Amino acid sequence: MAEIAFIAPYEDLAHIARQVSLELGLDLSIHVARVEEGANLARDLARNGCQVIVSRGVTAWLIQQAVDLPVVDVPIGGYDILRAYYQAKQFGGPIGIADVPDVIQGLESLETILGDTFLKYTLKNQDDDIRRGIMALKEAGAEVIIGKIAMAREARNFGLNSVIITSGKETVYQALKEAQRVLQVRQQEKRRAEQFKAILDFAYDGIIALDEEGRITVFNPVAEKLSGWRAEDAIGRPVTEVIPAAQCHILLQTGRPELGELLDIGNTRVVANRVPIIVDGRTVGVVTTFQNISSLQSLEHKVRRRLAGRGHVAKYTFADILGESPSLKESVRLAREYAAVQSTVLIHGETGSGKEMFAHAIHLAGPRQNGPFVAVNCAALPENLLESELFGYAEGAFTGARKGGKPGLFELAHEGTIFLDEIGEMSPRLQARVLRVLEEGEIMRLGDDRIIPVNVRVIAATHRNLAQMVKEQAFREDLYYRINVLNLEIPPLRERGADVLLLAEHFLQEFCRQLQRPAGNLTPEAARELLQYQWPGNIRELRNCMERLALRCHGTTISAAEVRQALGLVTVPEPEVPGEGAAGEGRIKRLAGQVSTLERGLIKRVLAEAGGNKAEAARRLGVSRTTLWRKLKEENKIDKAGKA
């Protein structure tokens, strides 16, 4: 469907329009229809996507009344009147013309050029009484009437000769160029309107605009949500009826902007910014924006998190928790139930049993899954450092404090979850501060006096008996009952039966893939060793054991001896047989020397594979960095002694 339509009252005009449209390269829809027929056709064209209509005379005027589209009227030009004048002169006698003021006023210059005068009658508009105008011209002595189709037809009814003023190519060209310009402007305005609508509809702020009488002219969806009013009901009403608390109309008198005002709209507290619209020194309207305070707090939190750049996200789901034992399945079942609510959870389990993995899974399965997940080990940091990590600090709070201060982990966990691992190791003073966060939902940074509201779910974990610690006054009783709302017990690995083998196989394959080695198979004896071992370090210890096996074993099977070696289980030397004396003692020394040689070789190989990174080598060997450092120091002494 062409966006510009030409509705010609007569065929000759349509023919000219076709010629001009070809010259202009214009996509033009051309139709022939007069007066009411033309108006009805225009309605159909508007429904089908037409944007601008071009027509002439009374037909153009009726179309303007029928459709809400721009209508370009083909003008009557001087050449058009001149052609009609010479045709009318063939009939002789005075020439009369009845038309709207724009046409009549332009005749004076033409009369001067022609040296002749017209009998003129001015119609107020295209709908004025044409019959009365023709009658007045006849009474004035006119014998020939020139004019548009309606005027010429009425003249013939009075027995007068008539000549239709037809539009020539020049005026049609002028009208179509104007239609192109109008279409371009309309498209630009439509784009601006759509942009404006998108801004209003998708802005986070409620937006209300008033006219100079205090009536609402703009009311966006957020304003609807805040006020409870629909836009179609609010627009056109005085703002005092819709949102009396907004006080927007006051600016119509004062003309002074008011920024950062706190208001209650319904049950929502908002921050309002009211700005007058001033044109030529006169206030002609007001624009007011509202921001939900809770949304502002949420946005502030997102900014804080982005600036902190810590990437606090949960990584493990319930699908990552492997095991088929009834005790583990019961723990997973309870954890899934706890995930659906917001209550505080206390997870109890031995070191390395997977407490943090359960905390990750609870967070990701709950309503806060899109929020941050912040984990902190309360046993890993000294008290002062842990306090600044949890609560943050203001600029200048202490020597070395970062410029601008630093947000704490409770702030970074806003709208999400904070996992307090080994909470039983927290000092009584910090326990009191954590209790306040849980009870009041607010924190205060070190060295600051500003209260910051936070909304966090707390998941705590410990391997200690907190109830006994409460009795011994080593843990605050009020905090214990505050965190022990939902209790989750993680079974130790030694009580999970065949889960040991399931996890061992999983870890072994994982490390062999990393090393690009084929995964070995556990012999029945090796599996028995794993099942009989008590696993004091639980899953963490099992994982370390499988990493050592993946590094040490290059065969297709893993024997019981290799498992025992990876677990650090050294066979106790047999008691010395009477009579053997020094020989038995010599065998023990030789065995110790062999073990020491194997140990040094293993350390060198793992260090090489870790690229010299001692922390990574210690992790792979399952020892602390201090132990590794001591072993390397001893080895260095041996090397120096050998060279000497």
UniProtKB/TrEMBL annotation:
Residues 321-551 form the Sigma-54 factor interaction domain. Signal peptide: none annotated. It comes from the Bacteria. Pfam families: AAA_lid_14, HTH_8, PAS, PrpR_N, Sigma54_activat. PROSITE patterns: PAS, SIGMA54_INTERACT_1, SIGMA54_INTERACT_2, SIGMA54_INTERACT_3, SIGMA54_INTERACT_4. GO terms for biological process: regulation of DNA-templated transcription. Residues 192-243 form the PAS domain. Keywords: ATP-binding, DNA-binding, Nucleotide-binding, Transcription, Transcription regulation. SUPFAM superfamilies: Homeodomain-like, P-loop containing nucleoside triphosphate hydrolases, PrpR receptor domain-like, PYP-like sensor domain (PAS domain). GO terms for molecular function: ATP binding; phosphorelay response regulator activity; sequence-specific DNA binding. NCBIfam families: sensory_box. This is Arginine utilization regulatory protein RocR. It comes from Neomoorella stamsii.
